[in-house]
Specification:
Blueprint (H helix, E strand, L loop, with lengths): L1 E5 L3 H11 L5 E6 L7 E3 L2 E4 L4 H7 L4 E4 L4 H11 L9 E2 L4 E2 L4 E2 L4 E2 L4 E2 L4 E2 L4 E2 L4 E2 L4 E2 L4 E2 L4 E2 L4 E2 L4 E2 L4 E2 L4 E2 L4 E2 L4 E2 L7 E4 L4 E5 L1 H5 L1
Parallel strand pairs: 1-2, 1-5, 2-4, 6-9, 7-10, 8-11, 9-12, 10-13, 11-14, 12-15, 13-16, 14-17, 15-18, 16-19, 17-20, 18-21, 19-22, 21-23
Antiparallel strand pairs: 3-4, 23-24
Length: about 220
Amino acid sequence: MNIVIIGSGGHSKVVRDIISSKEDYCVKAVLDDKYDQLTSNGDIYTGPISSAQHIISLYEGIKFIIAIGNNEIRQSIVSKLGLSHESYISLVHETAVISPSAFVGSGTVIMANAVVQADAIIGRYTIINTSAIIEHDNCIGDYVHIAPRATLTGDVKVKHGCMIGAGATIIPGLSIGERSVIGAGSTVIHSIPSDCTAVGIPAKVINKNKRSMDS
């Protein structure tokens, strides 16, 4: 399968490693707006994100993955490109453990040693990072980033656009509202509203962003 990676930063390096580990996958282009024009270096093109349609014209059935950690930027790129969900591939590292009853949406990446347990639902364009644990019956929205070693216990709901920091823990049955941020190492024992930042043990809301204050 031919693949276009969008983004060329540190997160992109890890995504590229996953692709390289799969025999039938081949990176054909890396697109990032740090490049001024589309060029070819051997078998791989590099160029701005606006080159996507040209790459599509070169390779029938080519798939895309957005390898950028920032949730808002991923969403902006998906919107700008206007491609179907079927144009994006989901990537799962060979050491990740995914329950047969779990669902993983298109454009999502699941990194090394992550665990996704029974009946969990992972949305589109989401990142389940290294050694993160998604327990049974979790529902993770689109454009979410679950950072390394975060632990989401049973029946947790993480809504659209959230960032769950490295090593954070969320106890069972809680909900994290849209676009909220849970700080690294925090322990969440109460549900968190939308558009908030919560940190600490136990996690407390320390900031409400402008969207929340205007609502």
